[in-house]
Write a structure and sequence with these properties.
The protein is mostly helical. Helix content is 78%, strand content 0%. It has helices spanning 2-5, 7-21, 23-35, 38-50, 53-58, 63-86, 95-111, 116-128, 132-157, 163-171, 179-189, 194-204, 210-224, 229-253, 256-260. The longest helix has 26 residues, at 132-157. 37% of the residues are buried.
């Protein structure tokens, strides 16, 4: 209609999306700082700021770009809580933190349904880490966010709750491989040298930083068998970059070869 054709409305909406996407930079910094030093965190933040995809998607209505800050913040809360418990800096489990984390992850789902795969990776990770309470509390927060957003919005638009989500869940298991985008993705990942370093680092820290790696890895696998490759890769770009870069830096700093041949890194 005329309302949505108004250039000022389009400009304002894109400005809001652009400002919202800036959260990716600071959240990536905060996540990296949990598992690495400040220098590495600043480098990751710079990479996120310079990625061509971020300015591009920030001014386009990509649902994955809207979901990304929510997913990163939920991941940040879980990582901080796990790190504090692991280092014995807190004595007891904080249920509220995991509920809030689940709520933000649920908001990510409300913005982009395919992020459900990312959340499944989070839950599996918590179960692997034997954090049953964390998995349960995050699920409560997740269901709360999904219930509020999908019920209110769908009642206004469709006069019935959970309509849009039911359509997505119905099509979730449908295999629809986008061969062209999948081939482009695989080729991009294999372009040396930086991409190979990231792949190596990403796989190297699979167990050490499983909270970051497993959700991203499951999302990558899911992207191959669906027709949402681009959006899904936008959604996991920061976590893939963080895990891959930190894993690579940890490797070469402890490698005699790379220590004696630092010039090769430049």
């Amino acid at each position: 209609g005329p309302w949505f054709d108004n250039p000022w409305i389009v400009y304002i909406s894109r400005l809001i999306l652009g400002a919202f996407s800036l959260l990716v930079i600071t959240l990536a910094y905060r996540i990296t700082k949990i598992i690495a030093d400040k220098t590495t965190a600043l480098e990751i933040a710079t990479f996120c700021a310079l990625l061509w995809g971020m300015p591009f998607v920030s001014v386009h209505p990509f649902p994955a770009a809207v979901a990304l800050p929510f997913l990163l913040y939920g991941t940040l809360l879980i990582m901080k809580q796990h790190n504090l418990l692991e280092n014995n800096e807190i004595e007891k489990f904080h249920r509220t933190t995991f509920i809030v984390a689940g709520f933000f992850l649920g908001m990510g789902f409300a913005a982009y349904y395919q992020s459900l795969i990312y959340y499944i990776g989070i839950v599996i990770t918590l179960l692997i880490l034997k954090n049953w309470k964390g998995a349960l509390m995050s699920l409560i927060g997740y269901v709360l966010a999904v219930g509020i957003t999908q019920t209110i919005v769908d009642m206004v638009v469709y006069h019935r709750p959970l309509v849009a989500m039911s359509v997505f869940l119905h099509d979730l298991a449908i295999i629809d491989i986008n061969y062209e985008l999948t081939a482009m993705f695989i080729c991009a990942m294999m372009i040396p040298p930086m991409s190979l370093m990231l792949i190596f680092g990403f796989l190297r820290v699979l167990r050490k930083y499983i909270i970051l790696v497993l959700p991203a890895l499951l999302t990558m696998i899911y992207s191959i068998f669906t027709n949402n490759n681009l959006d899904l890769l936008i959604m996991i770009a920061p976590t893939y970059l963080i895990a891959g870069y930190v894993g690579w830096k940890e490797f070469y700093k402890n490698s005699a070869f790379w220590t004696n041949n630092k010039w090769l890194l430049w």
